[in-house]
Amino acid sequence: MLKLYHHHTSVCAAKSRLAIEEKGLEWEGEIIRLRERDQHAPEYLALNPFGLVPMLDHDGRIVVESNVINEYVEDVFDGPKLKPDDPYKQAQMRTWTRMTDENIHAAAGVITTAIAYRHVPSHGNQISGQLDPYKQARKIASFEDGIDNVHFRTAMRRYDMLITQIDTALSGEGPGQALAGGGPDWLIGDYSLADVAMAPYMERLYCLEMSFLWEDKPRVADWYARLKARPAYQKAIIDWFDWDISWTDLMHEQGARVSNQVRSMVEEMRDPRYGGWTPPGADA
Fold it and tell me: Which of 34, 40, 98, 32 is nearest to 70 (CA)?
């Protein structure tokens, strides 16, 4: 039996729900109330010392971290293939999933808190119990200072880079030789855990009224439309976001309020002269 401990709007939980639904597996779920800090309860930490969602219980075998859960589900269960047989294609797939762990998820946390969740006092309760000090510092800054916090522009710049990287991948040309040969429909050619990993982050951008990031990139727009058209996407992401629509409504509402300001930031950062840094003592 598969039991997934998750939260309805968590991007990482959505990622694992999507993999499980794509495999066509039966599962039961338990909602972890993040703002009530269920994830920090002693009995939860005894299973998952990181105090995060999702967490998978497969007949007493505990698996944590969404991308790890997704590969575990792919390797253990029959169903539609979400991982290529070719080791090189597997390496490309993992390069994409690693991006989410390395910085895309951090960027999502910053922009979501800075734009929307800072308007919910109980979200501060979740931040105050955050176990990861780096994550806590980013979220405190985002909660207190909104889009003016020191991390926001960096998060938006990374997201803008990601959209360009996705566009290049769908063209088949990269980004770089290491990720060339993908597209035209999916990131590495065939639909895979690479697309699964990116899907919830695209949905988060859409909810925050940031689809302007791909308004001039029809390949990305079409890829996102293909993702949303998949039945598993509806079950794993849309239906759960609608389970408590107030959070989705909050993101759309607050995202619309700052959309023009954020768009201006992104346009400024797209200037090749933006973001340069000269170390102290170096020649200008």
Answer: 98
